[in-house]
Amino acid sequence: MKIIFGCDPNAKQLKKDLMTCAEEWGHEVIDYGSDDPIYANTAIKVATDVAAGMAERGVLLCGTGIGMSIAANKVKGAYAALLSDGYSAERAILSNDSNIACIGALTIGSKLAQLLLKTWLSQTFDPESRSRDKVARYKTYDMYRTCSEECV
């Protein structure tokens, strides 16, 4: 699986650790950097490219993961989920078909972040699951959202 990684300066080391793990697990990783203190810029770049199909999934990291999640979810076709525990990492895919994982570098230790990422990457959404109608509702809504050039 191809995965795009991005973070703000608070999460440089965790991003490096998680990219190494993802490569060891057999994934192709793309690094979108970590130097922009305006985390929304990185989140929007990663989310735009994941939504466009340039990678199957994205991983965004900042201090809490919240800002990255909010910013990424502004992009049409981006479905970012904040991962905080094993159950949320699993359900982010199984119940919500997320394509971007957000993790807080200052709130979650490296080992837990690795476990969350491994769990999230191992899941596949079943379009016939009981969550299908819920996911279809927000994806249908997304189809009708528009964005002016000012959004980019």
Please outline the helices and strands:
Blueprint: E1 2-7, H1 12-24, E2 28-31, H2 39-51, E3 57-62, H3 66-72, E4 80-82, H4 86-94, E5 100-104, H5 110-122, H6 132-144
Parallel strand pairs: 1-2, 1-3, 3-5, 4-5
Helix pairs in contact: 1-5, 2-3, 4-5
Which class do the helix and strand fractions yield? Answer: alpha/beta
The tally of helices reads 6
Spatial order of the strands forming the largest sheet: 2-1-3-5-4
* Gross geometry: globular
| CATH level 4 superfamily | Sugar-phosphate isomerase, RpiB/LacA/LacB
What radius of gyration results from the CA coordinates?
A: 14 Å
CATH architecture: 3-Layer(aba) Sandwich
| Through-space gap between termini | 27 Å
Instruction: Assign the CATH class.
Output: Alpha Beta
Mean pLDDT: 91
SSE string: EHEHEHEHEHH
Helix content: 40-55%
Find the CATH topology.
Ribose 5-phosphate Isomerase B, Chain: A
Q: How many beta strands in the DSSP annotation?
A: 5
Strand content: 15-25%
Low-confidence parts lasting 5 or more residues at pLDDT below 50? none
The major pleated sheet works out as:
5 strands, parallel
Tally the structural domains: 1
